[in-house]
Amino acid sequence: MSRGTRGTSSQALSRRLTFKTVLLWALAASAAGLAIGLAILVFSGSEGGVARSLITMSIVFANVAVFAAVLTVRYVLPKMSGFPVYVRFPLAVITLIAAGVFGSGLAILINPLIVLYQMKNALMIVTVNGVVALTIGAITYNYELLREQIEVVVAERSKLEREMDIARTIQTQLLPKSFPELPGWDIYGFSVPARHVGGDCFDVIDLGDGKLAITIGDVAGKGTPAAILMANVQAAVRALAESGVEPRKLMRHVNRIAHSYTGDSEFITFFYCVLDTRTGEIRYVNAGHNLPCVLRRSGEKEFLDKGGLIVGIMPDVAYEDAVVTLRSGDSVVLFTDGVTEALNPHDEMFGDERLEDLLVEHRHLGAHDIEERVYSELKGFVAGAAQADDITMVAVKCSADTVAPTFYEESSDSPREANGGLSAARGVSSGNHLREPAEAAVPVTTIVT
Fold first, then answer.
1. How far apart are CA 58 and CA 44, in angstroms?
2. Are 379 and 444 within 8 A, CB to CB?
3. What is the 3-state secondary structure (H, E, C) of the chain?
4. What are the φ and ψ backbone dihedral angles of 72, each rounded to 5 degrees?
5. Which among 3, 133, 214, 430 is least buried, having the fewest CB atoms inside 10 angstroms?
6. Per mean pLDDT, which of 58-62, 167-171, 197-201, 347-351 is the most reliable?
């Protein structure tokens, strides 16, 4: 046990005895003393005044010995908490024995003469009650230590949970607080960490002149280490993107930065693209990430697979970029493997095929509606199974003169509202499974031209 934990336990063990506690101990000790006294009388065959004296002596001695043991546990033994266990244990035994001897003396004072003509019975009462008191003292001491250790662990856990809530809030603030409102374009994204914080991220960066940098990434692993690594990568990407670096050069710089502070088993899958909203052209680079799906208005699919190795494995990696163009009614959906690898209670994965079928089926909808359909279907598929990985999606729809996106008001599933839609981060549920979709939201249809 650490010094801090011993100090906390010592303070707790030394706390004041309440009246209720004293009363309960007294009743328990009296019952034990009465039972022991009666048993010894039956064994010895004593009657009359001697019997009454022995029973009274047994009850008093039980109370004195038990309270001596309890008070020793509460106020004496905690003072020894700084000693090593091989010193503390013998001292505790000696102290409890001393308390029992003191209690014996007080009990005998009730009727000193009884020791002379009922010595055997008196010694039996003292011995049995003393053993009981020592046992109670030892049990009480260990119980109190165990309970206080549990309280320390619970307090530390509560503190950690508060810190993790703060970390989750900070990470949420790193996600887009709003999505750009550009004529003819509908953009939406969300992220659901599997724990308080996660290793997924996405971003939508306004580069000016009608250009947007859109990113999505996934760190191998979950929890705080993955979140810290992703936050660093996200900051590096944003700084480089705003400086106007080409996608392939940006990814090369990010890979070099990530490799400098990742271990051998740590890596990141990342997708980065620049969308020119004036022409619909997307210049992208895919660093080992799940292939984003371009959904043509006709229902055809195209996957964005050009790029290079995952980020962080090697210090110097060359990446290539490619170009794809979105036309009216087309969309592109980015996602992490938390979507396709989500498991139901039968250990079946949601899978790429099921996701692609959903995207094709709902290709005529706006960006937010597409994601709501996928999210609702995903939640129904997992059927309450624990979420094993972070889930993140970003959808971009070229909606000029075709489909009007559906905007939603804030709901209980949206701790933070993005412009033109619900929160960019749904958050994590207390039950550690997918939260309900925002079915209670009130749709407000707005035409984007």
1. 14
2. no
3. CCHHHHHHHHHHHCCCCCHHHHHHHHHHHHHHHHHHHHHHHHHHCCCHHHHHHHHHHHHHHHHHHHHHHHHHHHHHHHHHCCCCHHHHHHHHHHHHHHHHHHHHHHHHCCCCCHHHHCHHHHHHHHHHHHHHHHHHHHHHHHHHHHHHHHHHHHHHHHHHHHHHHHHHHHHHHHCCCCCCCCCCEEEEEEEECCCCCCCEEEEEEEEECCEEEEEEEEECCCHHHHHHHHHHHHHHHHHHHHCCCCHHHHHHHHHHHHHHCCCCCCCEEEEEEEEECCCCEEEEEEEECCCCEEECCCCCEEECCCEECCECCCCCCCCCCEEEECCCCCEEEEECHHHHCCECCCCCECCHHHHHHHHHHCCCCCHHHHHHHHHHHHHHHHCCCCCCCCEEEEEEEECCCCCCCEEECCCCCCCCCECCECCCECCCCCCCCCCCCCCCCCEEECCCC
4. -65, -45
5. 430
6. 347-351
Burial class (CB in 10 A: 0-12, 13-18, 19+), 159: exposed
Task: Tell me the sheet residues that pair with 276.
Answer: 211, 281
Tokens 């990342």 appear where?
A: 270
Long-range contacts of 85-93 (CB under 8 A, 24+ apart): 92/141
Single out the residue of 174, 273, 191 nearest to residue 228, CA to CA: 174
**Under 8 Å between Cβ of 374 and 410:** no
Report the pLDDT value the prediction gives residue 361, as an integer from 0 to 100.
Answer: 93
Cα–Cα distances (Å) from 179 to 49, 271, 331, in that order, read: 93, 18, 16
Q: Domain ranges for the chain, please list them.
A: 3-166, 176-445
pLDDT range class, residue 226, cuts 50, 70, 90: confident
Q: Which CATH superfamily is domain 176-445 in?
A: PPM-type phosphatase domain (3.60.40.10)
Q: Residues, the chain, total?
A: 449
The tokens for 4 are 């801090």
One-letter amino acid identity for 51?
A: A
- Scan for tokens 């002596």, then name that residue: 57
Q: Among 63-67, 154-158, 182-186, 275-279, which range has the highest average pLDDT? A: 275-279
As a whole number of angstroms, the distance between CA 262 and CA 240 comes to: 20
